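Annotated sample (chain length 531).
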Amino acid sequence: MPSPDVLDEERLRRLIDAGRSVVSELDLESLLRRVLETATEVTGARYAAVGILDEHRVELERFLTEGIEAEAHHAIGDLPRGRGILGVLIDDPRPLRLKSVGDDPRSYGFPPNHPPMTTFLGAPIAIRGEVWGNLYLTEKAGGEPFTGADEEATVVLAEWAAIAIDNARLYEGGARRRGELERAVRRLEASMAIARAVGGETDLSRVLELIVTRGRALVDAEGLLILLREQGGLLVAATAGDVPQGIQGSRLSSRGASIDQLGLDPATTLTVPLVFRGQSLGLLAALGRRGGGALDAEDEPLLAGFAASAATAVATARSVEEDRLRNVMQGAEEERGRWARELHDETLQGLGALKLVLSAGRRGDDPARLREAVDDAVEQLEGEIEGLRSLIRELRPAALDELGPASAIEDLATRTAVRHGVEVTTELELRRGVRHANEVELTLYRIIQEALTNAVKHARADRVQISVSEREGVLRARIEDDGGGFDLDAQTSGFGLTGMRERVALLGGRLEVSSSRIGTAVIATLPARAT
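Output written by the structure step:
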């Protein structure tokens, strides 16, 4: 008959199986539950518990049980803190077996509603020589005392538990550090994205998109809004993630503005201001943690620091947008001035001369003289009509819409040569039958038109060469003249270079201008966006 103090083969096998199972578990809560279940199985105990010590190793911080129902837990009340017999194991971390807990002079007894417990077996759980907690077993089946074999099994199980707990803690620590590294990478990516936006991105809508997507990733938010301050209140200018449907474009009045007006919960929404040089530009609002829950105190300074960079990016993009609008308006005014001069210098003067011819013919009684005056008037009218047609073609060339850029450029070159008496040659290498986006074709035409106007009116050129080619998705136009040139550093608005640069920049292209006393070269490169 085997000795009760020696582990039999069956329990050894169960302990080995239990060890394999326990050490493979990485979730601490599940691990402890599995240890308690295994302990009751291999010792026959009715009740089992694991007490986890606090950081000072003087009392129990947590207490997990097996065998006691939830109602009994509720009736007992507060969980033990490590007094009496439980405190003995804390003070003297060695295995302890008792036939009767209540008869031991160190026992404090049990609280009301506690189930009766007589026999007791406890063993410390030590990790790297440091006691982490204790394993407690009570009420062996049949009222028998725990044996030496039970104690040995419990000690083995406590050692298995220590190894598994250490692994789980290392895994959790690694996962926590990995999470911290991931958050650090997200912070770095967000900071770099905003830094790039500040340094290079000038499109306001793109900057706002960068802010909401990177800001959301930075704090792992469910959703993120950017509200920009406008006259009379705040506008939801951009969103990312899970946000209420239709919220983008919503407005908050400045008087009594609150995010709950947008259907957001202030308790789970973190808001930080967007401030640039002491001026409030708006707010960033993060809508809770992704997966549920609220953002915590660590997220606020993180998002606030991000908002500072974001505010700089918004202010820069707005400034560029305002400059762009001013340039567009200035270009429009220059265009109006140009057409006004054309109408005044040519059309109105021509009509004035026509009036004089007709008035002179009307004053005499000679029918022949009157017919001559009418013939002259008709001839002048034909010239003015052709002049007006030319102006209309320059305002919106029909050939560009109907026949494409090559025909429109050829027509422009021919009209310029005839009208101003200069030699204009063209070399066009465009793909036959291929049309490009309307804004690309119009920009190409306007750049050539403006360069031609500068060459014949300002530089007094005799010859102009227009070359246009398309290669590898890029349109390249080069306009060269033999005129007197101009000082690029002292350019005036009359040359229209600001408008040319703005047109090209809006399409993501590039404009290069060189000028000297022997001529000027304008080179424009544009993305060839096919329709």
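Annotation: The longest strand covers residues 130-140.
Annotation: The radius of gyration is 44 Å.
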